[in-house]
Amino acid sequence: MKAFVYSRWDGSREEFRLDAERALDALSDLLMQGLDAREALEWMRQNGFELGGLDMRVMGVDELVQELLEQAQELYDRYRMDRALDDLRQRLEGILDREQQALRSRHGYESSRMNEFLARRHADEAGIAETLERFRDHEFADEEAGAEYEELLEELDAIRELERFLGERGERFRGQEAADYDTAQDVREQIEALEEMARNLAEGNFDSLSPDALAELLGSDAARSLVMLRDLESTLRDSGYLRPGADGPQITPRAIRRIGAQALADVYGALRKDRAGEHDVDVRGAALPLPDQTRPYVFGDSLDLDVTRTVLNAVKRGGSDGFPVRLEVEDFELREMDHASHSTTVLLLDMSWSMSWAGRFAAAKRVALAMDHLVRTRFPRDRFFVVGFSTRAREIGIQELPEVTWDMGEPFTNLQEGLMVAERLIAQHPSKSPQIIVITDGQPTAYFLGKELHVEWPMGFGGVSPHAVAETMKTVRRVTQRGITINTFMLDDAPELLGFVEHMTLVNRGRAFYTDPGQLGSYVMVDYLNGRRQKRS
User: Which of 524, 521, 4 lies closest to 263, judged by CA?
Assistant: First the structure.
């Protein structure tokens, strides 16, 4: 049997409070897998979750229930209960023997008092509790026997509960340690407390559970987990990350911003900071100062001084007697400028059923969230859109992106319509360097002829869908003529997909990459940022 060292919990320990940001990070991991907020919360409650940065795991309901039931099973395996009531039964028989002797001495063996007593004593076979109940109104002739009977009568409810318990579960006790009456009562209470707590946990009745009681049964980690499971949804709601919706809790714009920031950190955190924000374009747009970035003046630079840092340099150079401040050329500090032109980027996200395999969709969605956050925070003049495509294509708003999932039961890939939607978005938001980023794991198998949708299975194993490929390539050529670059990231190396992407890349002169889900984020981010590096004169 497990042994624990316990300390009393007063319900106010700081370490028992759930950190909302870390809880949201755990929630976002499940959103990446395609669950919505309600499903993710339920999964976290049932299965537990990690709190990043704290080296701590919150135990889920399933694990807590299992621990409780294992504790109960250890008691079943430790004790045997076949003799648990023997001492109590002998004690009761001794009381009745003395009373019978007293009645015979006082009233004789054939008296009505004796006959009534014997009728009660030798009635149909009964348990100890029922026998005690029969003599509740009996006036004992032996005062000492009567006093002992009253002591037993005070235990009547507990005796009745133990007899019921052993009648239902006695055969489950198969241990080597024989339990007496007191031990049996303690074991019954422990098992019933364990099972009641397990039942309340399984039913989600967290408010009816005592963390202190759980700590006594399973330890402080279990109590801490209970508090955090209980407070999970309310903590996220109070922190502004969740709000009520018609179909359950929904994530808020504030949560989306943090999820995007975390996604960006996950897929781009290893890249150098000094590379972020640079453009690789031939035409310069408006120049904007980059916050907190300066450099020393070099002859020939335009004199766009950072006054504060320039004066500070002069003060440092002049020392304590440097007043009034005298500026020299070597003191000049220039503000770094971003001469970038804005761009429009559309990410085409394959949402066909096959994207649910091997973590592909989670990786692709994480990239979409990361890029959206990058553009919103670092390139606010850029335009970024996400278009999902399976049998049909549609634009996906940032508010729905964290909870979007693959299209269950949609095995077809309509890249043609995805390109059409992207083309319309770029036309509505023109720029000098428009691009389409395609993340997919399959060749086209759906297409439009006019307004009529067609689907087409590949012709044989390893074959292609010739009409879908042909119609998609027509759209690729039209997009290319409009100066739109298509960069493709393949999550599968099937020959038919490689062949199609090679053909598309040859026509469009974009780039193509084959990568696994674990590397997808870095590939896309580096490609996007390298494509925007500034060319300085």
Answer: 521
**Residue 537 domain-assigned?**
no
Q: Helices 20-32 and 37-47: crossing angle, nearest 10°?
A: 110
Whether residue 445 contacts residue 456, with contact meaning beta carbons closer than 8 Å, is answered with yes
85 is written with which tokens? 């009531």
Asked if residue 382 and residue 332 are part of one domain, the reply reads: no
Question: Using one digit for the tens of pLDDT, what is the confidence trace for 58-99?
Answer: 999 999 999 999 999 999 999 999 999 999 999 999 999 999
Beta-bridge partners for 345 = 384, 435
Let me know whether 383 and 328 are in one domain: no
Indicate if 321 and 424 belong to the same structural domain. Answer: no
- Residue 187 burial (CB count, 10 A): 21
Whole-angstrom Cα Rg for the chain: 38
- For 339-375, b/e burial (b = at least 16 CB within 10 A) is bbbbbbbbbbbbbbbbbbeebbbbbbbbbbbbbbbbb
Please give the tally of structural domains in the chain. Answer: 4
Same domain, 507 and 403: yes
Do residues 14 and 223 make contact, with C-beta atoms less than 8 angstroms apart? no
What distance in Å separates the CA atoms of residue 211 and residue 245, rounded to the nearest whole number?
30
Report residue 201 CA to chain centroid gap: 19
Neighbours of 285 (CB within 10 A): 16
Sign of CA dihedral 16, 17, 18, 22: negative
Residue 462 CB neighbours (<10 A): 9
Neighbours of 234 (CB within 10 A): 11
**Residue 465: domain span:** 344-530
The C-alpha atoms of residue 155 and residue 136 are separated, in whole angstroms, by 13
* Tens-place pLDDT, residues 271-317: 433 343 333 333 334 444 455 567 787 766 677 788 888 888 888 87
Contact 97, 136 (CB under 8 A): no
Does residue 113 sit in the same domain as residue 211?
no
Tokens 């989670």 belong to residue: 362
The verdict on pTM exceeding 0.85 is no
Give the three-class secondary structure for 229: helix
Token pair listed for 148? 């002992």
